[in-house]
TrEMBL record:
<dbReference type="GO" id="GO:0016740">
    <property type="term" value="F:transferase activity"/>
</dbReference>
<dbReference type="GO" id="GO:0009691">
    <property type="term" value="P:cytokinin biosynthetic process"/>
</dbReference>
<keyword id="KW-0067">ATP-binding</keyword>
<keyword id="KW-0808">Transferase</keyword>
<dbReference type="InterPro" id="IPR039657">
    <property type="entry name" value="Dimethylallyltransferase"/>
</dbReference>
<dbReference type="InterPro" id="IPR027417">
    <property type="entry name" value="P-loop_NTPase"/>
</dbReference>
<protein>
    <submittedName>
        <fullName>Uncharacterized protein</fullName>
    </submittedName>
</protein>
<comment type="similarity">
    <text>Belongs to the IPP transferase family.</text>
</comment>
<keyword id="KW-0547">Nucleotide-binding</keyword>
<dbReference type="GO" id="GO:0005524">
    <property type="term" value="F:ATP binding"/>
</dbReference>
<keyword id="KW-0203">Cytokinin biosynthesis</keyword>
<dbReference type="Pfam" id="PF01715">
    <property type="entry name" value="IPPT"/>
</dbReference>
Length: 60
């Protein structure tokens, strides 16, 4: 098969990392990360790629 995505997956090994953490701790960490992203310009970055009249009802 010559599909580039298949060849990438075939060529490289992969692995999973399992993190066991309490939900409250995870939620706090995610909240902090989102706040940090907003402070460093996430909203402005999204505004630059947002197309007002685009059809966002379908995925890729």
């Amino acid at each position: 098969m010559e599909d580039p995505m298949f060849m990438f997956k075939y060529k490289y090994d992969s692995f999973f990392i399992w993190i066991d953490v309490e939900q409250a701790i995870l939620n706090r960490r995610v909240d902090m990360r989102v706040d940090q992203m907003v402070k460093t310009g996430l909203v402005d970055e999204v505004r630059q790629i947002f197309i007002p009249d685009a059809d966002y009802t379908k995925g890729i």
